[in-house]
Design a protein that fits this description.
Helix content is 52%, strand content 14%. It has 13 helices and 9 strands.
Length: 404
Amino acid sequence: MVEFSLDLNEEQRDLRDWVHGFADGVVRPAAAEWDAREETPWPVIQEAAKVGLYGFEFLANCWADPTGLSLPIANEELFWGDAGIGLAIFGTSLAVAAIYGSGTPDQLVEWVPQCFGTVDEPAVAAFCTTEPEAGSDVSAMRTRARYDEATDEWVLSGQKAYATNGGIAAVHVVTASVDPALGSRGQAAFVVPPGTAGLDATRKLKKLGLRASHTADVFLDDVRVPGRCLLGGREALLERLDRARSGQRAAGQAAMRTFELSRPTVGAQAIGVARAAYEYALAYAKERVQFGRPIIENQAVAFALADMKMEIDAARLLVWRAAWMGRNNRPFEAGEGSMSKLKAGEVAVSVTEKAVQLLGGAGFLREHPVERWYRDAKIYTIFEGTSEIQRLVISRAISGMQIR
C-alpha cells in the first residue's frame, strides 16, 4: 500500500523551481512595464516558447502527471511572477482545454498546434463563450450556429464579450446555440480558423487588472467555417441533441466541460497572486520600523500575516485536491472544483487587500507591486464563474436540489 504523503516528487519540485526561475528572472522584471502599456507582451511569450514553457508539449507533460498537480504548480509559480503576463502566456490553454474536452483526436492534431504557433512566431488562442446577456446564465446564449448542407459549412452569428485574446488569436473557439429550444443542452463549440472572414474584434477592453492580457469583445457576422470545425463532429452532436429532445440526462455541455477542467488551475493562479502579496508584505513588515521596532513585532501585523499564510495554504490544499480528483476522474460530488476556485479567488482578494493595508501609504503607490496584485486579484471572484455561481454549484451538489 502506498503511504499517504503531501511531499512533491522530484519531477514536480524541478518543475516548480524551473517555472519559478522564469517568473523571477523574466516575468517580474517586465511586469510593471506591460501593466502600464496594457499590451500583449509578445517578447515574453516568445521567451516562454523558447524555453519550452509555452506550447502544447508543456501542457501535455503537465497533464501526464497522474497526481494532477503539475499544472496547478506551474500556474501558481508563473502567476506569482505576474498575473497579467501569466494570463497572456496561459490564456491559450483555455481554448486548448475546450478542444481537448470536446474535440476528436484528429481535431486536436489539426488545431492545437495552430493555437500556439511556432517558437519564432508564437500565436495565441481564444475561448469565446461569455456574452453581454449570457455570463453566468449560459443557457441564455444568443450566438447561433446553423448548418449549410449545400456547402458542408457552419454559419456562426452573434457577439461574445470579455474574450481573452479575442481578435488577436490565431484560433478562436466559439460556443454557439444549435437548438435554442434546448437551452444549454442545445449548444456546441466550434473552431474558427485563422483568417476566417466575418470575425471581428474592434473593441479592446480597458481593465482594472490583468492589463498585460488582451481582452476584447468579438463579433461574428455570418462566419462560415468548414463542417470539420464542429468540435466532436456532427454525428456526435446530432446524437446528443436527440437525447436532449427525448429528455435523457445530459453528460454535460461545451462551456461547462471546459470550466470543469480549468477551475483548479484558475484557483492556482489566484494562489500565486496571493502568495506574492503575502511574501512582499512579510518582508516589508520585517524591515519597516515604527516606534523604534519593526512593525512585525506588533501583534496586529503579525496576526494578519499569520492569517494570510494560513488562508493561502488552505486554499492550495483545496486546489490540489480538486486537481487530483479531476485528473483521476473522481466525481465532484460536493462541488470540489468550485470549492477550490471559490476559496482561492476570495483568498487572493483578502490577502492582497491586507498587503496594501500593511504597507500603509506605500501600498497605494505604484512603486510597490502590491497595488498591482490587489487590482489583479479581483478578477478571480468574477471570471470563469463568479463566487456566487461557485456557491450555487456547491449548494446544489451537497443538497441534491435545484437551488436558485
